[in-house]
């Protein structure tokens, strides 16, 4: 077991280095940050001086090594655009993204699983067909379109919900939360629906497919023969067996929601890390971009590591194999 | 009976007076597509940052709603000899923290603009020395005669010396400084009519009225909340839903929507920004064209052919939805030095274009690459696409390379050796004076003399260069205007540039609010009135 964990940790370090290398290589092609950092009247000599001072005209290997050395110490430098430490910027924006991601994940799970079970049980029912059809809309419409439609419908035409922003937030130490205010909760509704729609469809169809398969197995037939109540059969016995792939997929999707809520955050002007990232790209703000990519790689690596460990823990067959190979 | 009636009447009157609500604290909310770079007034020389900070910090002079120069922290100034200015400062001004304003603060602020992290070094270096004669009198010398000095000073904001020293902010916020984030970047202490009580970069900035302000302003607002909203659709939706009272910029195609929606209206007008096309007239062979061995743009007939091929009316109607103002000069009417007699755009005449191209030796035209930004100016990419199709009609095959501004400027500017053959650019002279355009766009490229930095095609004419130097020092307005006119006429006759139009200002305002739209697209809080 220990060997397994150590192996995976080493692999994770390689993954991080590879991500850093690729990301850094791409930064040469994002455009010139210097022009965004100075006004139009700034002289050529000063621009070149700034370029030299920031080390932007050093050769690639030197810049990369400097970057790896600083990042491993947690020093991500100062944002070119905002002139603030990148670490503070990311720490400030993290709560917004995490809150949005968790609420969407909960929504996706909370609606997706019951809908999946229902459509598996009542395969040909009218409501099932309706669920399947509307879920198709969830996957086929692009995220920004859904976001803008929701804003128009519930923000402009029916002025029930705010059209942008996070509402009033309460500062608990270094974490700013929107859960404790009415405007914060209202502001959370539309963005999380937008973000959750795709995941919900995915989970619903996955649960449905798994359930359909499980419902055909022998032990379900025996349960029914025994006379167990249908509710108990579906939710206590069948559902548990469908959950392993669902957990794996949800774990990966959670990482992807956190990392790539960029479009939703842009449309709703949600002050999270995704919006920070897209603004950094527009302004060629390299310190923020590199810190963000490293952080996202770290999040994915951790989630995958946790998922793999959970897998070994849950599925006895994998445990036996690894024990066998160690001897 | 009469006594009772009178008593009742008085009671009613008193009752009505008591029921009338006291003057309510009004809150104004607005949004822009981005945010100010930071609160440091010397941090970035950029219109939006300087414009927003102009409500919190002030300078010796300022522009009013009609772009006329007014005294601000300086009450009067004179120019007894070409390089000397006497400036009298206003008395009785307090900074937001209660400190008094005097000449020491001006001298300190000037020195601060010359520190490493400052992006106002150009303005700072317009002053050679600044001496204090007494607490409210300064003697300023310039390295060379500069008739528009006080116009440039309108954006050199004055900070409080004691406050900056106390908070270790005597140097402008520097990107290279790994430890300091710059106190002045997150906190402010100016003399302006508003203070900043809350600042979250890229999220929200809250302004509160400063009750100790030295002047009288027309606005009736107590609190202003600013949020950046990056997506245009979200911004417009926020205005229509009433969540904000004013937004800009509004995409040109949304003007009709704002007109048709209840409670909001578009506020538009020509900006003091001229959009134009430039051509590489320097290299012996164009970097990106099908013509080998020579440079077609060196021939005036080719440049004139390009000019006559572009239909500015069509661009105005179809691309800009009627919102642009076709231009013949490289400066807008609001800029000092503008002469309406010279502002006739080149005539649209594609037949003449073909004839000129044939005469110049290109009867079948030629091909070249055009560089264009796609997120910097209003409808920039669409303008370039329209120009491409218009040139195709006279035989010029344009390969359009439209890129985001970070990449575009990274390619075409000096630090990349002006890697372009044909490009689109926009320019607002920071001093609202023609000399800025002469110096940056019309003079031959010259690194030592700091000229022609944005003259990407290196249009070079000896007399125009000479005029640049002359108008820089000429103080007689009539002589100066004559020189400016002469230079512009040379540029037009030689077809050095192809001016297109003034781009439109595009704001969206709630019917409850009244604001003044300045030609340099700056939003001055002093003019907001809410019903």
So how many helices of chain A? 14
Overall SS class of chain B: alpha+beta
Percent strand of chain B equals 15-25%
User: What strand order characterises the main sheet of chain A?
Assistant: 1-2
Share of helix among residues of chain A?
over 70%
Total strands of chain B: the figure is 19
Number of strands of chain A: 2
Distance between the termini of chain B: 42 Å
In round numbers, the mean pLDDT of chain B is 90
Q: What is the CA-based Rg of chain B, rounded? A: 26 Å
Topology:
The complex is a heterodimer of chains A (327) and B (531).
Chain A: H1 2-27, H2 33-37, H3 44-53, H4 60-72, H5 86-121, H6 126-140, H7 143-157, E1 170-172, E2 175-177, H8 182-214, H9 218-226, H10 230-260, H11 262-268, H12 273-282, H13 286-314, H14 316-326
Antiparallel strand pairs in A: 1-2
Helix pairs in contact in A: 1-13, 5-6, 5-8, 5-10, 6-8, 7-8, 7-11, 8-10, 10-13, 11-12, 12-13, 13-14
Chain B: H1 2-19, E1 27-32, H2 47-53, E2 61-63, E3 69-71, E4 74-81, E5 84-89, H3 103-112, H4 121-124, E6 129-134, E7 137-141, H5 149-152, H6 161-166, H7 183-186, E8 194-200, E9 204-209, E10 223-228, H8 232-240, E11 246-248, H9 255-260, E12 264-279, H10 300-309, H11 312-319, E13 325-326, H12 350-360, E14 367-373, H13 380-392, E15 397-403, H14 405-412, E16 422-427, H15 434-442, H16 462-473, H17 477-494, E17 498-510, E18 513-514, E19 529-530
Parallel strand pairs in B: 1-10, 1-11, 14-15
Antiparallel strand pairs in B: 2-3, 4-5, 5-7, 6-7, 8-9, 9-10, 11-17, 12-16, 12-17, 13-17, 18-19
Helix pairs in contact in B: 10-12, 15-16, 16-17
């Amino acid at each position: 077991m220990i060997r397994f964990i150590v192996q995976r940790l080493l692999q994770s370090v390689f993954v991080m280095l590879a991500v850093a290398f690729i990301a850094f290589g791409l930064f040469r092609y994002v455009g010139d940050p210097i022009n965004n950092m100075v006004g139009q009247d700034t002289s050529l000599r000063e621009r070149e001086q700034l370029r030299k001072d920031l080390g932007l005209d050093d050769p690639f290997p030197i810049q990369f090594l400097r970057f790896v050395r600083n990042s491993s110490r947690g020093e991500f430098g100062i944002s070119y655009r905002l002139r603030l430490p990148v670490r503070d910027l990311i720490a400030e924006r993290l709560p917004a993204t995490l809150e949005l991601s968790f609420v969407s994940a909960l929504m996706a799970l909370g609606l997706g699983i019951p809908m999946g079970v229902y459509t598996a049980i009542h395969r040909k029912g009218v409501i099932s067909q309706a669920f399947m059809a509307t879920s198709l809309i969830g996957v086929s419409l692009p995220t920004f379109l859904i976001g803008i439609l929701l804003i128009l419908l519930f923000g402009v035409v029916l002025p029930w919900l705010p059209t942008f922003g996070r509402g009033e937030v309460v500062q608990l130490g270094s974490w700013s939360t929107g859960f404790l205010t009415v405007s914060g909760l209202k502001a959370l509704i539309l963005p999380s629906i937008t973000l959750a729609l795709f995941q919900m469809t995915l989970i619903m169809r996955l649960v449905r497919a798994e359930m359909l398969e499980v419902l055909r197995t022998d032990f379900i037939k025996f349960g029914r023969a025994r006379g167990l109540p249908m509710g108990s059969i579906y939710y206590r016995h069948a559902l548990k067996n469908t959950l392993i792939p669902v957990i794996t997929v949800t774990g990966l999707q959670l990482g992807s929601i956190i990392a790539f809520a960029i479009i939703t955050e842009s449309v709703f002007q949600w002050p999270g890390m995704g919006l920070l990232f897209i603004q950094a790209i527009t302004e060629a703000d390299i310190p923020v971009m590199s810190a963000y990519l490293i952080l996202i790689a770290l999040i994915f690596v951790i989630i995958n590591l946790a998922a793999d460990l959970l897998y070994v823990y849950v599925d006895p067959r994998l445990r036996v194999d690894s024990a066998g190979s160690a001897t | 009976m009469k006594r009772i009636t009178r008593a009742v009447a008085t009671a009613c009157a008193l009752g009505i007076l008591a029921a009338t609500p006291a003057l309510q604290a009004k809150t104004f909310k607005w949004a822009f597509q981005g945010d100010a770079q930071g609160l440091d007034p010397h941090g970035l020389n950029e219109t939006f940052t300087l414009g927003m900070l102009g409500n919190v910090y002030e300078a010796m002079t300022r522009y009013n709603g009609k772009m006329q120069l007014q005294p601000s922290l300086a009450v009067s100034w004179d120019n007894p000899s070409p390089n000397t200015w006497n400036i009298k400062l206003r008395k009785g001004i307090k900074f937001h923290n209660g400190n008094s304003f005097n000449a020491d603060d001006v001298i300190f602020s000037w020195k601060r603009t010359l520190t490493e992290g400052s992006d106002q070094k150009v303005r700072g270096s317009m002053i050679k020395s600044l001496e204090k004669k007494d607490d409210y009198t300064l003697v300023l010398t310039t390295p060379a005669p500069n008739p528009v000095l006080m116009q440039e000073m309108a954006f050199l904001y004055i900070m409080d010396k004691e406050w900056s020293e106390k908070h270790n902010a005597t140097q402008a916020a520097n990107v290279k400084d790994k430890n300091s984030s710059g106190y002045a970047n997150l906190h402010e202490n100016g003399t302006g009519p508003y203070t900043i009580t809350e600042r979250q970069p890229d999220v929200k900035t809250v302004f509160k009225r400063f009750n100790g302000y030295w002047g009288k302003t027309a606005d009736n607002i107590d609190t202003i909340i600013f949020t950046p909203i990056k997506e245009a659709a979200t911004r417009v939706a926020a205005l229509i839903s009433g969540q904000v009272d004013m937004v800009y910029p509004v995409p040109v195609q949304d003007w009709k929507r704002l007109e048709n929606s209840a409670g909001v209206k578009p506020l538009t007008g020509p900006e003091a920004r001229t959009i134009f096309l430039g051509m590489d007239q320097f290299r012996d062979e164009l970097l990106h064209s099908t013509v080998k061995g020579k440079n077609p743009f060196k021939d005036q007939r080719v440049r004139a052919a390009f000019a006559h091929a572009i239909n500015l009316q069509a661009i105005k109607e179809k691309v800009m939805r009627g919102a642009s103002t076709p231009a013949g000069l490289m400066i807008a009417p609001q800029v000092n030095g503008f002469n309406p007699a010279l502002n006739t755009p080149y005539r649209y005449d594609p037949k003449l274009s073909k004839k000129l191209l044939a005469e110049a030796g290109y009867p079948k035209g030629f091909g070249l690459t055009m560089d264009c930004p796609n997120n910097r100016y209003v409808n920039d990419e669409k303008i370039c696409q329209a120009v491409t199709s218009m040139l195709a009609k006279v035989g010029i095959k344009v390969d359009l390379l439209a890129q985001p501004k970070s990449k575009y400027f990274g390619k075409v500017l000096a630090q990349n050796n002006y890697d372009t053959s044909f490009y689109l650019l926009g320019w607002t002279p920071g001093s609202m004076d023609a000399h800025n355009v002469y110096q940056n766009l019309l003079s031959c490229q010259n690194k030592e003399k700091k000229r022609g930095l944005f003259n990407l095609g290196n249009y070079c004419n000896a007399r125009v260069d000479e005029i640049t130097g002359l108008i820089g020092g000429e103080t007689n307005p009539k002589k100066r205007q004559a020189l400016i006119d002469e230079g512009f006429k040379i540029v037009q006759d030689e077809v050095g540039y192809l001016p297109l139009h003034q781009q439109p200002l595009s704001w969206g305002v709630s019917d409850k609010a009244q604001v003044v739209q300045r030609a340099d697209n700056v939003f001055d809080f002093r003019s907001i009135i809410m019903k």
